[in-house]
Amino acid sequence: MDGKLKALKSMLELQNINTFYGPSHVLQDMTVKVNQGEIVCLLGANAAGKTTTMKTIFGLVKPKDGKVMFKGERIDTLKTDQIIKKGIILSPEGRRVFSRMTVRENLEMGAFMFTNTTQVAEDIDKVYALFPRLKERDKQISGTMSGGEQQMLAIGRALMARPQLLCLDEPSLGLSPILVQTVFDTIHKIRQDGVTIFLVEQNAFMALSNADRGYVLQSGKIIMEDTAQNLLKNDTVRAAYLGG
Questions:
Q1: Is the model's pLDDT at 3 over the cut of 70?
Q2: What are phi and psi of 141, to 5 degrees?
Q3: Which residues, 6 or more positions from 44, have their beta carbon under 8 angstroms from its beta carbon?
Q4: pTM: predicted TM-score of the whole model, two decimal places
Q5: Which neighbouring-strand residues pair with 21?
Q6: Cα angle vertex 79, ends 75, 85, to 5°?
Q7: How far is CA 200 from the centre of its chain?
């Protein structure tokens, strides 16, 4: 983890968000802030509300009250495509690659907003530099690749949209320990390229070992927030998420 944050300018803010599914009050008065240049993680067990948080950010679910702000502009009133065009991109849980398309075709789909073919080709080369294994699989049908390779492709596809803020939903899910380390090493490289990272993750140890700050979500409520290093040392967090 970088010892110093590059900036403290606010990138993403969820301000007193309340999100419902019918009568079910899923997110309860949630407040989260991600500053430019940070890696911030959101921890929580299954059904804690992590995926609903992502859906709320991207306008797939509208909060009943509260605000979602991006670089000082309110975005919860916008449609999903409008939010994406602001520079917020999601790499979703479960990878969700286009399984019948090749690796290159998947990456080209990630650049759907751009018409400059030279730029798109250059961006594919950058993704291949980040993930050499994808370059080796350039013409391979993505549905035939391993889970780790598909996760690389999902992140690479998200990067093709040139995000200012990259949201990663469970990027280590189902991966071997070696590939989990590879994914987190790559997250640092992405941050070094100037992309801010908001990470939703069940692997609390890896998330906190690599993030600047963290939030703990329990039953739709933020119950704790601190630097990642302090959360790693916190007895409550250790007992609930770190096995001791």
A1: no
A2: -65, 125
A3: 50, 200, 202, 216, 217, 218
A4: 0.89
A5: 24
A6: 75
A7: 6
